[in-house]
Task: inverse folding
């Protein structure tokens, strides 16, 4: 029975990983670079499960004190994965990880960033890098912006302001880092968490004695959540 329980757990984990890959929800948890190794691990688990289930040799018991609850505990992550709908990281997570109205959020490896592509093709991560590589707002004024992200707001922002944000993933969801760009609209900001496409241009805003860059939106339109919601 213990061997069959172990085989069942291995089969369940392997099958769930393949299911998550097939439905695309695996992108909510890990970087695309690790997709093939994960699928390979799932295949190995399925093979091991089948071998264990068909093995007719009696299993040796190495510890008489093993908990009978162990299989149920190990099965809990799979059960939760099946029962709970898969979701990418939320604006609440962005707030917990430090995305606020006063910060774009840091992005690593700035020395390697080159402002060579047309700015209309920049995503949020590219713009954060560009603004950190050249923080003078006047040199970005007038540049066109077209980005997609989710709406992030906090209590410090006026009704017509929000951040259009994404998570940047380095390895997995645990190390995901929120980054965002400040946007001013001609109307009230969309609901937090809504995915939108922002079209507009950079302008310079002076707050006290500080000059900062701000996207003045010409259009903010609802957008479907991308199949890969993170940036890499």
Result:
């Amino acid at each position: 029975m213990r061997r069959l329980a172990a085989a069942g757990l291995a089969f369940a984990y392997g099958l769930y990983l393949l299911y998550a890959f097939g439905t695309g929800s695996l992108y909510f948890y890990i970087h695309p670079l690790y997709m093939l190794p994960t699928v390979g691990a799932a295949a190995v688990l399925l093979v091991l499960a089948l071998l264990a289930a068909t093995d007719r040799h009696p299993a040796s018991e190495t510890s008489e004190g093993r908990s009978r609850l162990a299989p149920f505990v190990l099965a809990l992550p799979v059960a939760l994965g099946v029962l709970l709908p898969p979701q990418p990281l939320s604006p609440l997570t962005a707030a917990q990880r430090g995305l606020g109205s006063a910060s774009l959020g840091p992005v690593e490896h700035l020395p390697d960033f080159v402002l060579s592509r047309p700015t209309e093709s920049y995503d949020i991560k590219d713009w954060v890098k560009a603004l950190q590589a050249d923080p003078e707002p006047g040199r970005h004024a007038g540049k066109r912006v077209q980005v997609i992200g989710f709406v992030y707001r906090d209590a410090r922002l006026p009704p017509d302001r929000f951040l259009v944000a994404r998570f940047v993933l380095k390895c997995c969801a645990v190390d995901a880092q929120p980054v965002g760009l400040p946007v001013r609209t001609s109307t009230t900001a969309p609901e937090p968490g809504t995915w939108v496409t922002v079209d507009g241009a950079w302008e310079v805003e002076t707050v006290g004695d500080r000059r900062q860059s701000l996207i003045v939106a010409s259009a903010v339109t609802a957008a479907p959540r991308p199949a890969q919601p993170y940036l890499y």
Remarks:
- The chain has five helices and five strands.
